[in-house]
Structures are given as C-alpha cells and as structure tokens.
Amino acid sequence: MDIIVAIILGIVEGITEFIPVSSTGHMILTSRLMGYDDQSSVMNSFEIVIQLGAILAIAWVYRFRILNLLGLQKDSQTSRAIGKPAGKLNLIHILLGIVPALAVGYIFKDHIKSLFSASTVLWALVVGGIFMIFAEWYNKRYARVSAEDIDQISYTQAFLIGIFQCISVLWPGFSRSGSTISGGMISGVSYRASADFSFLIAVPIMIAVSGYELLDSYKDMNSDTLLAFAIGFVVSFIVAYLVVLAFLKLIQKVQLRHFAYYRFVLAAVFWIFIMN
C-alpha cells in the first residue's frame, strides 16, 4: 500500500464514517475502483486503523459529554460540549443503544463477513436511502417528538435506536449512522438529538468492534506498512473531526433526505462502473 492510497482511503473514511452514507460501502467501492482487494488481510487491518482515527475524532468532539458520563466531569463544565449540558443522559442509555448491535454482531459475525461485496453495498445504499426518507417523513407527519435534545431521550427510545442499529450490522453498506438517526426520528427523537446520540454511541461500539478485529489483524502492521497506516490514521482523524463539526452546524440545512438522494446517485454511478 503506497502513501497516496493511504491518504485517499483516510479521507474517504473520515468523510463518510459519521454521516449517513455508509463508510463501509465507500471503502469497499473505493478499494475496488483503485484495484485493491478489499478483503485482503492488509486492507482489513488498514481499515481498522483508520476507523480508530475516526473514532478518536468523535471522542474528542464529545469529550466533555463522555467525561461527564464517566463521572469525571461536573455538569457545569459540560456547557462547552456539543449540545446542551448533560442532564438525564447516563450510561444506561448508552448501554441500551449499543448492546443489541454488539450481541447481533457477535452471534452472526461469520455470516456478516460473507456479505461484504460491492453488490450487497449497492443494494444497501438504495434501501437505506429509502428508509431514511421514510424516517424523516414519519417524524414530521406522525411521530410525537418527545426528545428535542439528547438529555430528553428515554430508555425506551435509546433501546429502539439500538435495535435499529442492528440493521446496519447485518447489512454492510446500510450505514450505522443512517440506521440510528432514522431509528431515533421514528422513535420520537428530533433530528439533532438523534445525530448527537448516534455519534455518542458510536465511540464504545466502534472501539469494541475495532478492538476485536484488531486482535486478529495486528500482525499485518509491520515496518513495511507502518508509515501508510500512520498516515491513514492521522488523515482519517483530521477529516472526521472537521466533517462532524460541519455536519452539526449545518444539520438544519442538510436534511436526512439529502443524504438519501446522494446514496441513490452513488449507487447508480458505481453500478455502471463496477457491476457492468
């Protein structure tokens, strides 16, 4: 893996990890376009490393909120964090949001790995986009929004978001953030609060998944790949940090359906260039 490829994939990971367009899908499709085998052990290890860079970025954005959840930060000090000061949100909400996906991922881990293909991702982009449009429509038309900010999310809503997250675990390319944000909006959580909760629960679940995968893949990090891995990690961190900040600032202007339209276009383009 050369440096240019590491930079490109680091940028792709950073841009797509936390917005509802499927980072897994983009990584698979980008690797295919560049002629790389996205199922090789080195590529799998590299993807884990740059994903850790993106995780670190989101952890930094929500650092005050995370410290508060861990009891290491006073409520008054969280006012500088993204969103409102911590109130009702606690570790039980986080556990309810991540346990279903972790359980499903562990039980079906062997089956899930067999689903990583370009065709699977293309269909996931389309179906996931339709689901996102439905969630936005349902939230505005029928859902009684009871959680305008993250601290108003109930245990039931946190658990429902966790259940919806299982879709992305079982279907590569569906998008973790797309399923959780949509699930939140269907459950009566506002768009902004759904995004905040989605980003926050991404930290523990991605650390758990990446850590588990890294135990099998760390041997691929040697002197020949170390530089490329390090560059990809740094690029992913920087890009993910900037993208999340921009997304949170523009969240009222960039609705969920806009990402769905992008997914449709992406699926069509890659269907032409990859599947034919």
Task: Give a description of the structure.
With 276 residues, this protein is mostly helical. The protein contains twelve helices and no strands. It has one domain. It has helices spanning 3-16, 23-33, 41-61, 63-69, 91-107, 109-113, 118-141, 155-170, 176-186, 191-217, 226-249, 256-275. Helix 1 (3-16) runs antiparallel to helix 2. It is globular. The relative contact order is 0.20. Mean pLDDT is 85; it is low at 76-87.
Brief sketch in words of this structure:
It holds the Pfam family BacA. With 276 residues, this protein is mostly helical. It is built from twelve helices and no strands.
Topology:
Blueprint: H1 3-16, H2 23-33, H3 41-61, H4 63-69, H5 91-107, H6 109-113, H7 118-141, H8 155-170, H9 176-186, H10 191-217, H11 226-249, H12 256-275
Helix pairs in contact: 1-2, 1-3, 1-11, 2-7, 3-10, 3-11, 5-8, 5-10, 7-9, 7-12, 8-9, 9-10
Largest beta-sheet characterization: none
The ordered string of helix (H) and strand (E) elements is HHHHHHHHHHHH
Strand content: under 5%
* Count of DSSP-assigned helices: 12
Helix content: over 70%
Average pLDDT, rounded to a whole number, is 85
List the domain count as a whole number: 1
Radius of gyration: 18 Å
* Terminal-residue CA separation: 27 Å
Beta strands, count: 0
EC number: 3.6.1.27
Keywords: Antibiotic resistance, Cell membrane, Cell shape, Cell wall biogenesis/degradation, Hydrolase, Membrane, Peptidoglycan synthesis, Transmembrane, Transmembrane helix
Organism: Paenibacillus physcomitrellae
Function: Catalyzes the dephosphorylation of undecaprenyl diphosphate (UPP). Confers resistance to bacitracin.
